[in-house]
Design brief:
single chain, about 475 residues, alpha/beta, Aldehyde Dehydrogenase, Chain A, domain 1, Aldehyde Dehydrogenase, Chain A, domain 2, 7-stranded mixed sheet, 15 helices, about 40% helix, about 20% strand
Length: about 475
C-alpha cells in the first residue's frame, strides 16, 4: 500500500489524517492519502493566488508546450493510469484504457486552444455616442479556479477542469473525489514534470463538507467548477458568493426509439450506454421510451444485449461491468429496484447484487413516479416504457427536472427535427446513446442539470473575463 501526500506549491505536503483508498472490487486497501485540514487548504489557495500572476504572464506558446508535454506523457503512461483507474474506481479495464486515451486527448486539445484565446473588435461607432472611438476586448484569466471533480472519471473529468484552466492562464486548487484521489495525484507528477510553474496546480483531498466548503466560500477563489449531484450544486450556488460557477449535475437520460429505428443497433448501443461504468455516468441510459409498434421487438433485443454483458473483476479485459463505487451505493440501487418491483414493475433481467456489484437490470411496466424513472439512478438499471407514438415518447422523455443529454433512434429527418425542437436538453444525440461525448464539444445541461459548459474551448470562456478597451481618437 503506497502513501500519497497532498500537492501544494509544487511539492509534497502533509495532512494530519490519512485516508484509505480501497480497491473497489476486492475491498482491499490500495493507498493511504493525506487529508487536508483548513491550514492545507489555506496554503493551497495562497499558492494558487501567487502562481496565478505567473500563469497570466506566461506566453500562450509556453502554456501550450506544457500541456502538450503532459498529453504526451499521459499517452506514454496509458497503462499505468488505466490500471490505477481500474483499481480505485472499479471501472472495467477496457473503459479505463479509453478514459486514459481521452484524458491525453483533452490535454492535447487544451494545448491547441491555448493558442486561440482572443478577443475581437467592437464597432463602437454603431451608436452616435461611439463616434471617434475604437473598441476591442480581450480575454483575461480569472485567477484562482477551484475544481471539484467526481469519482466516475478520475482522470478525464479532472482534465476537463484543470487543462482549460491552465490553458487560459489560471492557477487551480483541485479537490478530487475522496474515493478516487490517486489518479489526480499522479496527474500532478505529470504536469510538474512537463514544466508547470509551482503552485499552478494544487491538490487537496477531503470531504465536500469540509475541504469543498472551504474552497467554495473563500474570497480568493474567482471560479468554481464542479461535477456532482444537483443537491450539492444547489449548496454551492447558495454558498459561493459573487464568483463564476460552472455546475455539471445530474440527469435521468431518456432515449426515444422510433418505429423506424434499427432495433438491433439501438439495443446494443443502449445496453452499452446503460451499463458502462456500472451506470455511474451522468448521461447513462436510464429511461427508454419505445414506440408501441416495436416495443416487444426492441425489448427482446435489449434484454439479450443486457444478458450478454460480462460482469466481474474489472481487471479482466473481457469484463464489461465491475463494481459500483462502494457497497452502500449498490445497496441503494438494489433498494430502488426492489421498490419498483413492489410497485408492479417487472424485472426482465438482473436485479442481483453481490457486495458492490449490481448485475445489469432491465425493468418494464414502470410508472413515472418510481424513483428509477423520476430520479437519477446512477447505477446499472434501465427502464422500458411503451408509448403510443413518437410525439408521445418525446413528451414523456421531456417530463423531468433535468436536461443534460437525451437521444433518439430514427432514420427520419423530420423526427430528428421534431425532437430537437421538443426536447429541452443541453445535448441531443441521434442514433446513439446519450452517453456519447466528444471532449471538444460544448457539454452541459439545462434546468437542474447545471450551469455553463465544459468542452475545452467553452470551459475557457467561463474561466476568463472579458476586458473591454475603448480608445478615443484625440487627433
Amino acid at each position: 500500500m503506497l502513501d500519497y501526500p497532498l500537492f501544494i506549491a509544487g511539492r509534497a505536503a502533509g495532512g494530519d489524517a490519512k485516508l484509505i483508498v480501497t480497491d473497489k472490487y476486492t475491498g482491499e486497501p490500495l493507498a493511504r492519502v493525506a487529508s487536508a485540514g483548513p491550514d492545507e487548504v489555506d496554503q493551497a489557495i495562497a499558492a494558487a493566488q501567487q502562481a496565478a500572476t505567473t500563469m497570466a504572464a506566461l506566453p500562450a506558446h509556453r502554456r501550450a508546450e506544457i500541456l502538450a508535454r503532459a498529453a504526451a506523457t499521459l499517452r506514454g503512461r496509458r497503462e499505468d493510469f488505466a490500471q490505477t483507474i481500474v483499481a480505485e474506481a472499479g471501472k472495467a479495464l477496457k473503459y479505463a484504457r479509453a478514459e486514459a486515451d481521452r484524458g491525453a486527448q483533452t490535454f492535447q486539445i487544451a494545448a491547441e486552444e491555448a493558442k486561440r484565446i482572443h478577443g475581437e473588435t467592437v464597432p463602437l461607432d454603431a451608436v452616435p455616442s461611439g463616434e471617434g472611438y475604437f473598441g476591442f476586448y480581450l480575454r483575461r484569466p480569472v485567477g484562482v479556479v477551484a475544481a471539484i471533480s467526481p469519482f466516475n472519471f478520475p482522470l478525464n473529468l479532472v482534465a476537463h477542469k484543470v487543462a482549460p484552466a491552465l490553458a487560459a492562464g489560471n492557477a487551480v486548487v483541485l479537490k478530487p473525489a475522496s474515493t478516487t484521489p490517486v489518479t489526480a495525484l499522479k496527474l500532478c507528477e505529470v504536469l510538474a514534470a512537463a514544466g508547470l510553474p509551482p503552485g499552478a496546480l494544487n491538490v487537496v483531498v477531503g470531504s465536500g463538507g469540509t475541504v469543498g466548503e472551504w474552497l467554495v466560500t473563500d474570497a480568493r477563489v474567482a471560479k468554481v467548477t464542479f461535477t456532482g449531484s444537483a443537491a450539492v450544486g444547489r449548496r454551492i450556488t447558495a454558498a459561493a458568493g459573487i464568483k463564476k460557477i460552472t455546475l455539471e449535475l445530474g440527469n435521468t437520460s431518456p432515449v426515444v426509439i422510433a418505429a423506424d429505428a434499427d432495433l438491433d443497433f439501438a439495443a446494443h448501443r443502449c445496453a452499452v450506454g446503460a451499463y458502462y461504468n456500472s451506470g455511474q455516468v451522468c448521461i447513462s441510459v436510464q429511461r427508454i421510451y419505445c414506440d408501441r409498434a416495436v416495443h416487444a421487438a426492441f425489448r427482446e433485443r435489449f434484454v439479450a444485449a443486457t444478458r450478454a454483458m460480462v460482469v466481474g473483476d474489472p481487471k479482466d479485459e473481457t469484463v464489461d461491468v465491475g463494481p459500483m463505487i462502494d457497497e452502500s451505493e449498490a445497496l441503494r440501487i438494489e433498494g430502488w429496484i426492489n421498490e419498483a418491483r413492489a410497485g408492479g414493475a417487472q424485472v426482465l433481467v438482473g436485479g442481483r447484487r453481490e457486495r458492490a456489484v449490481v448485475w445489469p437490470t432491465v425493468l418494464d411496466d414502470v410508472t413515472p413516479a418510481m424513483r428509477v424513472v423520476a430520479e437519477e439512478a446512477f447505477g446499472p438499471v434501465a427502464s422500458l416504457i411503451a408509448c403510443d407514438d413518437f410525439d408521445s415518447a418525446l413528451a414523456q422523455a421531456d417530463q423531468t427536472p433535468y436536461g443534460l443529454q437525451a437521444s433518439i433512434f430514427t432514420r427520419d429527418l423530420d423526427r430528428v427535427l421534431r425532437a430537437v425542437r421538443r426536447l429541452d436538453f443541453g445535448g441531443i444525440v441521434v442514433n446513439d446513446a446519450p452517453v456519447f461525448r466528444a471532449d471538444h464539444m460544448p457539454y452541459g445541461g439545462t434546468r437542474q442539470s447545471g450551469l455553463g459548459r465544459e468542452g475545452v474551448r467553452f470551459a475557457i470562456e467561463d474561466m476568463t473575463n472579458i476586458q473591454m478597451v475603448a480608445i478615443r481618437s484625440v487627433g
